[in-house]
Specification:
- The chain is about 45% helix and about 10% strand.
- It has 14 helices and 10 strands.
- Strands 3-4-5 form a 3-stranded antiparallel beta sheet. The chain has a 3-stranded antiparallel beta sheet with strand order 6-7-8, covered by helices on one side.
- Strand 4 (about 145-150) and strand 5 (about 155-160) form a beta hairpin.
- Helix 5 packs parallel to helix 7.
- The longest helix is centred in the first third of the chain and has 20 residues, at about 40-60.
- The model has no long low-confidence stretch (mean pLDDT about 90).
């Protein structure tokens, strides 16, 4: 790893200790990492980075004498003997996409031999095979993928794969079982967290609505029978429920006055790509990042990074930095530039009322606005109104009053 350029001694020390740590029931490992261990994906990315670039050099980044545009480049290279091949990798699980069967067979053998000879790695022959996506499904990360015709084009049809579907059903049934044994708010929230987590992961499948409708049908009888004596007729629909499922008309089940998230309440979300040029490790990539930060005072940002608030959580201090960048260095109320010593990160819902240090519960504002939000006496309120009067308008006042209500103070009226 050191020769690859990973020369952070603290990181290497931590990795070394994790590799040598004793495993319960097994002892000190002599080879590899534990199945499902958190170190495995990190080491996979380090080792297989070379594979990514080798595959890329066969087609995507193959250097040509003439500088083509992307589209014309592909047309120019296809008559050649080069193999048109693309890789999609997640940790140690990857797919290679080729245009024809012959290229796929040659690439399969070449990659298998390259991994063995170059990286001393063996592939799983049970899981590795050449598949024609026009005729059969290919499984990847809990999804199954196939190419289908849509008008004059060919598009991907993706579903939750069979193994993952069984796992999803089993997980939901376990949560229903917990609710049946102990119908508490905690178990209802745990059930909702499970449903939301599944929806967030699988929502990129094009046929996810159909898949979850089938899953909902298969577990609905169990949910109905298990909660028939413990469910409420009415209850509260949380902000999360209304945000994610408020538009659906499914019959709602209430446990301890908590609305359970509907299993079938999901729609496909388009996968949005990001620029491959954005990268911390190249001049071009860093320039893109820096250009996005041009409106931010770098001195103030550096100050925030080097001077965390003492006695506060890591989450709070990290979110302070993210807020400053996210708000482009400006007060969320007035739009004025934030300056060192004259700005505060404010908890929208105070900690004493259950507010947390999460990003969504914080906002960066100038100090005088912060004091005005917390001011309670008429005299103090008037002092700070006079200080910020030239900076605020009707919209600003609405924002201030919203924050004052959240902390338990009365609204302000300014002539």
């Amino acid at each position: 790893m050191w020769t690859l350029g990973i020369q952070d001694k603290s990181l290497l020390s931590v990795i070394s200790k994790m590799l040598k740590a004793e495993i319960k029931g097994i002892g000190i490992p002599q080879k590899g990492t534990p199945q499902g261990g958190i170190l495995s994906p990190l080491l996979s990315n380090i080792v297989l980075n070379e594979l990514d670039w080798w595959i890329s050099s066969q087609w995507e980044t193959f250097e040509t004498k003439h500088k083509y545009h992307v589209t014309s480049r592909n047309k120019a290279l296809r008559p050649s003997n080069l193999k048109e091949i693309y890789i999609v990798r997640y940790a140690d699980d990857f797919k290679l996409m080729c245009r024809d069967y012959e290229t796929a067979q040659k690439s399969f053998i070449a990659v298998k031999n390259w991994l063995k000879e170059r990286l001393c790695l063996d592939i799983s022959l049970e899981k590795s095979k050449v598949i024609n996506l026009r005729k059969n499904y290919s499984n990847f990360l809990g999804f199954k993928l196939k190419v289908i015709k849509k008008g004059k084009k060919k598009v991907i049809k993706s579903n939750i794969n069979d193994k993952a579907t069984k796992k999803v059903i089993q997980g939901i049934l376990e949560r229903i079982k917990d609710i049946k044994k102990n119908p508490t708010v905690a178990n209802a929230n745990r059930y909702n967290a499970t449903i939301l987590g599944l929806h967030n992961y699988y929502r990129y499948a094009t046929y996810v609505t159909v898949d979850f409708s089938k899953i909902a049908f298969l577990v609905s009888k169990n949910l109905y029978n298990s909660t028939i004596r413990i469910r409420n007729k009415t209850g509260n629909k949380s902000k999360g429920y209304m945000e994610y499922y408020g538009k659906y008309n499914f019959k709602t089940t209430y446990i301890s006055n908590i609305a359970l998230f509907p299993i079938a309440g999901i729609k496909t979300k388009n996968v949005m790509n990001f620029s491959q040029n954005t990268c911390n490790f190249t001049k071009e990539g860093r320039k893109i990042i820096h250009d996005k930060l041009k409106g931010i005072n770098q001195r103030t940002l550096k100050y925030l990074m080097e001077n965390p608030m003492q006695g506060e959580t890591i989450e709070y201090n990290d979110n302070r930095i993210s807020l400053y960048v996210g708000q482009k260095g400006k007060c969320s109320i007035t739009g004025e530039p934030l300056q060192i010593g004259e700005m505060n990160s404010h908890h929208k819902i105070p900690r004493k009322k259950g507010g947390k240090d999460e990003y969504s519960n914080l906002t960066f504002i100038i100090s005088d606005i912060h004091k005005l939000i917390h001011a309670t006496t008429e005299e103090i309120i008037q002092i700070y109104i006079n200080k910020v009067k030239t900076l605020i308008n009707k919209k600003s006042l609405v924002k201030i009053n919203k924050l004052r209500r959240l902390v338990g103070n009365c609204e302000l009226y300014i002539n």
